[in-house]
Amino acid sequence: MFDSRYKFTAKELDNETSYTYFGARYYDSDLSVWLSVDPMSDERSWVSPYNYCQWNPIIMVDPNGKIDGWVEGPDGNVFWDPNTNSQEEFNKNYAGKEGYSYASDPDDPRSYTLPTGEGKVIMHQWIEHDIEDGLGGPMIKMEFKPTDNNSNVGWFQTFESNIPDVSSSDCYFKLPDENIVERLDGQYIMNKSDIKQATYFDNPPSTILEDQPGRFYKEGAKYSVYWKAQSSIIINGKRSFTISWGFTIDSKNSGTYIRPNFVKEPTEFHKNAINYLKFN
Fold it and tell me: Which residues contact 8 (CB under 8 A, 6 or more apart)?
């Protein structure tokens, strides 16, 4: 017999209070409101503390109120999965898929400890903005906590794109073309196109990478927008690891996101740029 306690959300209805229990808080379906704030609201300061699934319930799920997590694939690469935020959720999402494992730290789904022992990566924000009127792009805020607090640590970034360098004011006027070019991030602002002038992504170096690249697909464009970054942590002058992430826009209202993932080998351009880093 069908259990009427479980409605279309597959969450349990408390018949005594008429509230639906979502694992972290109760929901009043009559008023369409949560009865308490998101338990992870301090880590999601960019959205209302009363949001659900970061305003994107069609794509994302939130079984237990926790932020998203890290998963390791069969090739050994670790990637960010916005729909897997616990071992229990991993067991459900990856049932029957061989070679995958849950990689987040047991006490914090945002955090992934490097097997090298050099430190841990913490994802504070990964937002996949809707493509609206051709404009789109993600927001990322990622932190590296080194094991050795006395080490010289910083993020360094290059990106590949088929749109010329833009600022927030002129991104609407530059159309994508067929050529994808890799660049030093920030060279538009610093007017530095020479790879030998590469500096840290932040100056002075920072353990936090925070970026929000936005690009525009203009009606009549012949090619899709393509933008992909490679972000590396440099420890005492040497690359520790590289994370790739980005997005595409293929129409006024559609595109895809390249979710953050560890890459074993960055591009030659990226590696050569690291060799020319100026250390303070």
Answer: none
CB 162 within 8 A of CB 176: yes
Order of all β-strands in the sheet with 19-21: 12-14, 19-21, 26-28, 33-34
- Say if CB 56 and CB 47 are below 8 A apart: no
pLDDT tens for each residue of 90-114: 999 999 999 999 999 998 899 999 9
For the question of whether the overall pTM of this predicted structure is more than 0.85, the answer is: no
pLDDT digits (tens, 9 = 90+) for 216-233: 898 788 899 999 999 999
Question: Cβ neighbours of residue 11 under 8 Å, at least 6 residues apart?
Answer: 20, 21, 22, 23, 27
Give the pLDDT confidence of 1-37 residue by residue, as tens digits. 445 665 555 566 666 676 766 666 666 666 566 656 6
Q: Contact 212/139 with Cβ under 8 angstroms? A: yes
Q: Choose among 61, 89, 110, 86: nearest CA to 260.
A: 110
